[in-house]
Write a structure and sequence with these properties.
By secondary structure, this protein is of the alpha+beta class. It has helices spanning 36-51, 57-77, 88-112; strands at residues 2-5, 8-12, 18-22, 29-33.
Length: 114
Amino acid sequence: MIEIYKNFKIEQADYNYYEATNLNDCDAVIKWSKNKEDIKEEIDQEDYKKSNMIKDTIVKKVLDKYKERSDVGIKKYGTTLNRNDLEFKEWILHLQEELMDATLYLEKILESNK
């Protein structure tokens, strides 16, 4: 029995194995497995990887910096932003302090470019 899953044809092959063939490239067998669900999972993982590939190098650079910053924060403070020990007002005060720092950096940049 043939099953179409996304852009692949999944059918039983020799020795009770299943194979998945890309319908856009019928010569390309991508997976052999005893279980159709394993094939579908691999197809889903490939789709997920493709959908998460970042084409814009600037966006990728910024995301990499966010990850680095998160790692530094976890190492420094021993926690993530998922923490629940701060009240709403405490989070607002943290934000205020960060924004105040940002205005100081801006002032320094403006002053040095005179």
